[in-house]
Amino acid sequence: MSIYLHQVTKQYEDNTVVDDVSLEIEQGELFVLLGPSGSGKSTILRLIAGLTTLNAGKISLNGRDVTHLPPQKRHTGFVFQNYSLFQHMTVAQNIGFGLEIQKVPPAQRKARIEELLALIEMSEYGNRLPSQLSGGQQQRVAVARALAQNPDVLLLDEPFGALDVKIRGQLRQNLRSIQKRLNVTAILVTHDQEEAFELADRIGIIDKGRLLEIGTPDQLYRKPGNHFTATFLGNANLFNAHRNGTMIYIGENRIPAPPNTEAFAGKSVQMMFRPEEVVIVPQSAQLNGYFFGEGIIESIAFAGALERVAVKLNPSGEIIQALISPDISRELGLRPGDAVKIGVKNFHLLPTE
Amino acid sequence: MKERNLSLGGILLLLVVLIYAGVLLLAPVAALVSNTFKDGFEPFWKAITDPEALNTLWLSMRLAVLASIFNALLGVMVAWVLVRHNFFGKGLLNALVDLPLVISPVIVGYVMIVLFGRTGWLKDFPIKLAFSWEGMLVLTVFVSLPFVIREIQPVLAGMGKEQEEAAYTLGASPWGTFWRIVFPAIRHALTYGIVLTLARSLGEFGAVAVIGGGTQGSTESATIYIYRSLNDRNYAGAYSMALLLGVIAILILIIMNNLRVHKRGG
Lengths: 353, 266
Prior knowledge:
The complex is a heterodimer of chains A (about 350) and B (about 270).
Chain A: E1 3-12, E2 15-25, E3 30-34, H1 41-49, E4 56-61, E5 64-65, E6 76-79, H2 91-101, H3 106-119, H4 135-147, E7 153-157, H5 165-182, E8 185-190, H6 193-199, E9 202-207, E10 210-215, H7 217-222, H8 227-232, E11 237-244, E12 247-250, E13 253-256, E14 268-273, E15 278-281, E16 290-303, E17 306-313, E18 319-324, H9 326-332, E19 339-344, E20 348-351
Chain B: H1 2-36, H2 41-49, H3 51-84, H4 90-96, H5 99-102, H6 105-116, H7 133-143, H8 146-159, H9 162-169, H10 174-203, H11 206-212, H12 222-231, H13 235-265
């Protein structure tokens, strides 16, 4: 176990910022802490790095209890959101700073700096000052600096937050390949679910200081364990339902219960399905998937490769969001105001709030 | 039409600035220089090589240098605490830093006499502050207190504490972090703060005159010497010392400016 957090809690006066968080991360894993701003995810990083002290709990890195060690002795590499490069030092001096502190001999230090500059593909930039670099370049230098001493864990606090969208995608791939090549354990904090999906081996969902759920991106998207995860990770259609026998009852409609949902037997549940699982057709005969209900198309909006269709459900008036391909929409001649049948290809059950 | 009005306004503005600068800055300097050398270079040389005059200059420089060292050290600490720490009364402390700029130095000198004088509340204070050069030093430190603090504060606030935290995670001790990360960042501001402190200290008159009493040969600073010389109608002495002080001030500015340029270049 590379990183181990046990019941970690951090309070500021009456405000609990990190609430009883336990977490285990494997060697070489890229773990993403995902949550809205103010959820306490950055504080967790700072607790691991020792930049903030905890009120309760235990933190181990590579089997070493670091709970009460100062940041200098934790062997973490930290990449700050604003990179925090040392402004008066060159790129090479920034990367070599930690090595110099550890009194690594100059020749060895120089070799390591060159190795890292090559790793971030900035070999020509060793003598530049941070102020002479673009945001993306500064970010890469910050990563190299954090990696210089082969830390036990790489901690990244919203490392792409200050960059524009185009560079972001490129740097994500860069970071991912460096992390995998070095097989360094990493925790990345972000509020951007797309970023989390693209990078993470596993994601931890954080809300109000609590770690709600951990899973692979696919698991969390398709089979979230709670309402917050379901709605935070993209759009979700949610309906109150009841599981009884082998069926799910939603209003007057019933659908066969999915497998492995016996735990919900006899209970109220929430039925969740993503917009891309929705089928909209004019005639029942054309329906594939489970029949969900009837409704009127409220609006059809262009959404890049797909069309975003909102359907008002009869008789409740609830809105169902659907994503369908423009081809199908054209073939069926869908227009706002049309009466349609609604089907669901796949769905998932959540405990009620 | 509008543009012409604007340029007319611009000319007027320029005139006002030039007259203002001319009357307030250049005219006194010109008068000082011409008066000093009215009877040639000889009286000037005699006046500034007079041992009594040199003594007062020496005291002024000693006070200014000591006050600058003291305020440089304490200024960094105070600025640090004001930016990095949160505590009860921080707002008040921050406001108090400007006090020396708004209180008349004469009043502060008088208050010190009341406190530390022969019948004062703190008359048994182990160091004799009333009518002594130590007392003059304390007041010089006081009147020049805000400069270093106010120069460093925005720089510290602007750099944030992440650079320090980054240094910590890379293994640097708090002390090492200060010297390697914080000090280089505030160096220029500190230098400038020290220049202002030196200049302010060298020119102080009211406070040191009151607390020191201006005793010839012991607590008479250069500015007090000028004042006495004027009263004694020793114009050559007064003008010469004034010019010398002015030249020293300008030299400090030039040297410090060069230092800054040099360091930025390297």
